[in-house]
Amino acid sequence: MTTIELYPDDVHNQRTIRQGHPPDWVNREGGDYDLVVLGGGPGGLTAATTAAAGGHRVAMTEQRLTGGTCVNFGCTPSKALIRSARAVHDASRGAEFGFRLDAPPQTDFGSVMDRVRRIRSMSSSFDAVEAAEQAGVEVYLGHTRFTAPNAVEVEGRLLRFRKAVIATGSDPVVPPIEGLRTGEYLTNETVFSLTELPARLVVIGSGPLGCELAQAFRRLGSEVDLVGHPGTLLPHDEPEVGELIRRRFEQEGIRLHLGFVAVRAGAGRLLVQSADETRELPYDALLIGTGRKANVEHLALDAAGVHVARDGVEVDEYLCTSNSDIYAAGDATFPQKFTHAAIATARLAIANALDGAHRPARDLVIPHCTYTDPEVAEVGLTPRRARNEGVAIDAYRVDLDKVERAFIDGEEEGFGVIYTRSGSGEIAGATLVAAHAGEMISELTLAITNRLPLEALANTVHCYPTQAEVFQRIALQAGPQKVAVPH
């Protein structure tokens, strides 16, 4: 049986382990199941509990902690850390709101991380082994591997299945850097074990993870250098987004090294190079956030006749693998590696595998949000994606400094853009940069899912004053606010 350790060994981490991988857990003897789900993260738990609720006999296997990366090493602890950092930042802005502190706010990093671990343990209770069992799922803990096209083995127990879903998630990618040794750097799986604030933090990676944690640690008091190989922040979002976040980071004192690649690390120094310059960055902690890869290497997929592609398990548009009895969901196969994408694809995989729904994954409208301040959210067709797909779109925009609630709250840095299919007015996508973009983007996701026109958004009554009014204002002013779409 796998031994699970979380550092530090405090009451919160002990609770997380007891909930996600009870040390005294004894697996059943195995048997025959309608469905076996590999992986106990958000995708796996969704697949397993959905099938159990439908009356199927279901087994779910998990090698590490139920709740997966999201609860234990990703969404939950990172957002708890970001919230503390934002509170510190807001306290430093008192003069803007008419109050004054006798001294600048002082961060108690130990207390911050204690809160992070406490919140993680609370969140993990919803995804605990006991919760899955109460939902009708038979849980097996330990290493899982396929032994035949319709069977897996977990710690010596044989589970035969009619259908299976692979939802084993993903692991952090560590780039090849000379001198970099395991244990001498942080990833999302180890950064939340810190108990002391690093005086100097170097972050490698300019995507969501790197940007979110670089800003959080800077606000908590670290000196932060961020290294990104692309010449922009958040390179998968629209270019204006990265430029706005770049300006905010520089205002907050984050030192950016964009267009640089890390080439050598050791003795508290990172050497980075661009096409025409070399820089040496000192650090007390080095955080790597350069992407994720599917966690499928140890499943013995060959024994099941399941093919693997570059991004993970190879599936068709219905999430079925090369073995017609095995489906895959979430990070193990899906390029959009978000918790909500894992949950959505897991539901779809179950509908297709057990109910014959025959629904393609392309029908899913998956938004995403990066939880910097301001937050960045996108959904549907944006100019970059529209160009790749050869789709003509129109763009309509309103800046947040034209929205009363935004400047009332001192959160007017940002903008909203709605993209429509040219000639039809049907809402096709959106980009939103706002303090609470993640809370707001679902309105546009609903509109796109239901193929609504701008007129429907214009006619929807919004509370005043709210920042969500930005969408209605865009719709109401669509004519005069139309902007050129970059080609």
Describe this structure in words.
The structure is a single chain. With 487 residues, the protein is an alpha/beta fold. It is built from 17 helices and 24 strands. The strands form 6 sheets. Strands 1, 2, 3, 4, 5, 6 and 18 form a 7-stranded mixed sheet that branches.
Radius of gyration: 24 Å
The overall pLDDT, averaged over residues, is 96
Given helix and strand content, the structural type is alpha/beta
Q: Tell me the number of strands.
A: 24
Helix coverage percent: 25-40%
| Major sheet | 7 strands, mixed
Instruction: Work out the helix count.
Output: 17
Distance between the termini: 55 Å
Gross geometry: globular
Low-confidence stretches: none
Determine the strand fraction and express it as a percent band: 15-25%
Helix-strand blueprint:
Elements lengths: L10 H10 L9 E9 L3 H12 L4 E5 L5 H6 L1 H17 L2 H4 L11 H16 L4 H6 L2 E5 L2 E5 L2 E4 L2 E10 L3 E3 L27 E5 L3 H13 L2 E6 L10 H13 L3 E4 L2 E6 L2 E5 L4 E5 L2 E4 L3 E3 L13 E2 L2 E2 L12 E3 L10 H17 L12 E3 L4 E6 L2 H7 L3 E7 L4 H5 L6 E7 L5 E8 L2 H4 L1 H8 L4 H5 L10 H8 L1 H4 E2 L4
Parallel strand pairs: 1-2, 1-6, 2-3, 6-18, 8-9, 8-14, 9-10
Antiparallel strand pairs: 4-5, 5-6, 7-15, 11-12, 12-13, 16-17, 19-20, 20-23, 21-22, 21-24, 22-23
